[in-house]
Design a protein that fits this description.
CATH architecture: 2-Layer Sandwich
Strand order of the largest sheet: 1-2
Structural class: alpha+beta
Organism: Pseudomonas aeruginosa
GO molecular function, one term: FAD binding
Radius of gyration: 15 Å
Largest sheet: 2 strands, parallel
InterPro entries: FAD-bd_PCMH (IPR016166), FAD-bd_PCMH-like_sf (IPR036318), FAD-bd_PCMH_sub2 (IPR016169), FAD-linked_OxidoTrans_Type4 (IPR051914), Oxid_FAD_bind_N (IPR006094)
CATH topology: Uridine Diphospho-n-acetylenolpyruvylglucosamine Reductase, domain 2
Pfam family, one: FAD_binding_4
CATH class: Alpha Beta
Low-confidence stretches: none
Strand content: 15-25%
Distance between the termini: 30 Å
Shape: elongated
Mean pLDDT: 88
Protein name: FAD-binding oxidoreductase
Order of helices and strands: HEEEEH
């Protein structure tokens, strides 16, 4: 978290855009820095932080990939439907 905060401060100081990149699977092609931005990779921030079985909600870090979340759901008797 501290490293992310530092890069955000640096980018703000230098007026450089940031492009967040989750698990970098390439499924959504979202991590494109076409205009000199800096890509911030979150693939090491890949933990599931909280799960509420009653509400069926999950709080996770940005590097959690779909397969990881699907596996977690299955382990808890749930199904995480994804449509690409």
């Amino acid at each position: 978290v501290e490293q992310v905060q530092a890069i955000v401060r640096w980018a703000n100081q230098h007026k450089v855009g940031l492009v967040p990149s989750g698990g970098r699977t390439g499924l959504s092609a979202a991590a494109v820095a076409a205009n000199g931005e800096v890509v911030v990779a979150f693939d090491y921030m890949n933990r599931i932080l909280d799960f509420n079985a009653f509400d069926r909600t999950v709080v996770c870090q940005p590097g959690v990939v779909t397969k990881q979340l699907q596996t977690f759901a299955e382990e808890n008797g749930l199904y995480y439907p994804v449509d690409f």
